[in-house]
């Protein structure tokens, strides 16, 4: 395989500054994903997740495209993916985990 190198070999030749930039970009990409990207990263289709949530695929598609939604809807989506939703407020003096939103239950539907 002429001309092919492992990523580890390529990293060896990178400057410290380049390595730092790559690490920063990786953290940024891991920290910023749309709901559909999270679902795809979990190897689930909209149909799969919609069945888990007991909603139609079209409703899930609308949910993934919303710019504003209920926290309970987002929590159900994340839990259906096997995750846990943690809401954190970031302040200059430190982060605060918001606790009183943990047990919101309306019913089994996404609202």
Essential attributes:
111 residues, 2 strands, 6 helices, disordered C terminus, mainly alpha, flat, 50% helix
Description:
With 111 residues, the protein is mainly alpha-helical. It has a domain at 1-32. The protein is built from 6 helices and 2 strands. The protein has a two-stranded antiparallel sheet with strand order 1-2. Strand 1 (88-91) and strand 2 (94-97) form a beta hairpin. Helix 4 packs across helix 5. The longest helix has 16 residues, at 16-31. The radius of gyration is 19 Å and the shape is flat. The model is unreliable at 104-111 (pLDDT under 50).
Number of strands: 2
**How many helical stretches?**
6
Give the helix proportion (percent range). 40-55%
Q: Which ranges are low-confidence, i.e. pLDDT below 50, for 5 or more consecutive residues? A: 104-111
The strand line-up of the biggest sheet is 1-2
Largest β-sheet summary: 2 strands, antiparallel
How does the overall form come out from the CA principal axes?
Answer: flat
Helix/strand layout:
Elements: H1 7-12, H2 16-31, H3 35-41, H4 46-53, H5 57-65, H6 71-80, E1 88-91, E2 94-97
Antiparallel strand pairs: 1-2
Give the structure's gist in a few sentences.
With 111 residues, the protein is mainly α. The chain is built from six helices and two strands, in the order ααααααββ.
């Amino acid at each position: 395989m002429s001309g092919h190198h492992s990523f580890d070999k390529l990293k060896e030749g990178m400057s410290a500054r380049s390595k730092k930039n790559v690490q920063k970009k990786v953290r940024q990409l891991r920290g910023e994903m749309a709901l559909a990207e999270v679902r795809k990263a979990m190897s689930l289709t909209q149909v799969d997740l919609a069945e888990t949530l007991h909603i139609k695929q079209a409703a899930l598609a609308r949910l993934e495209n919303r710019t504003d939604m209920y926290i309970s809807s987002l929590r159900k989506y994340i839990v259906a993916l096997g995750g846990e939703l943690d809401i954190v407020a970031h302040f200059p003096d430190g982060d605060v985990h918001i606790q009183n939103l943990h047990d919101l239950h309306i019913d089994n539907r996404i609202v």
